[in-house]
Amino acid sequence: MSIPVLHGAPYSVYVRIARLAFEEKGVAYELRPVDIFAAGGPPPGYERLQPFGRIPALEHGDFRLYETDAIVRYLDEAFPGPALSPEAPRERARMTQVMRILDNYGYPSLVWGVFVREAGSEADRDPVRLAAAIEPARRCLAVLEELLAGPFFLGERLSLADLHAAPMLTYLALAPTGRRLLEARPGLSAWLTRMAGRPSLAATRFPAEG
Ligand SMILES: N[C@@H](CCC(=O)N[C@@H](CS)C(=O)NCC(=O)O)C(=O)O
Questions:
Q1: pLDDT recorded at residue 13
Q2: Which of 13, 50, 120, 174 could pair with 66 in a Cys bridge, judged by C-beta atoms 3.0 to 4.6 Å apart?
Q3: How many angstroms does the Cα of residue 172 sit away from the middle of ligand 1?
Q4: Residue bearing the CA closest to ligand 1, atom 1
């Protein structure tokens, strides 16, 4: 079968989550550029891959899939390489819980609320919205640190929960306010340093990381 194609852009949190899964599994893939924020919108026909106009979208042979959670679970189960999901029901549930916390509370506060409003493009910066995001971001970091069960979210082994969190916290750390919030969470800061040292993170750096 042809190699999987991931449609998206290197600046995207969710595209990076999917790329991290490819990298950690050791699976070759093609990143096909889709700039969702381009002036004219996504390329014509993209709605057949992602009807909600978001990135990423996956094509693997004749199989098409969107929603990052579905994509990374498919990659984990359909390809050889280290397992990124635990077997035990409670651990699986915990992993899903961390991922949903990140989607529902982390992405809006850490990425859009703090990073974009403080360190995003000139047009996106907004001190009022930044101020409003600080408490939700602080709460999110507190909860995440509490859930950290060892060197990784689930303890000794890397899982999809770590791959979901790393891009969001990487963006957070690029903003001065985000750095301060993270410094108040030494466990989470140490986790982020550990994650940043992985080859998968090095291979998928955001353009904003320089
Ligand atoms: N629920 C989607 C979310 C994907 C998402 O929000 N991607 C962002 C980029 S990180 C996007 O496409 N944003 C475009 C927009 O908000 O219009 C998923 O899990 O794949």
A1: 98
A2: 50
A3: 17
A4: 67
Mean pLDDT of the chain: 97
What type of residue sits at position 119?
A
The residue whose C-alpha atom lies closest to atom 12 belonging to ligand 1 is 54
pLDDT classification of 161: cutoffs 50, 70, 90: very high
What pLDDT, on the 0 to 100 scale, is given for residue 162?
99
pLDDT category at 168 given cuts 50, 70, 90 is very high
Show the ligand 1 pocket: residues with CB < 6 angstroms: 12-14, 36, 53-55, 67-69
For the chain, the residue count is 210
CATH numbers and ranges of domains, the chain = 5-78 (3.40.30.10), 89-209 (1.20.1050.10)
By most ligand atoms within 8 Å of CB, the mutation choice from 55, 64, 115, 172 for ligand 1 is 55
Ligand 1 atom at shortest distance from the alpha carbon of 111: 10
Q: Tokens 């050889």 — which residue?
A: 80
Dig out the tokens for 186 from the structure.
Answer: 């030494």
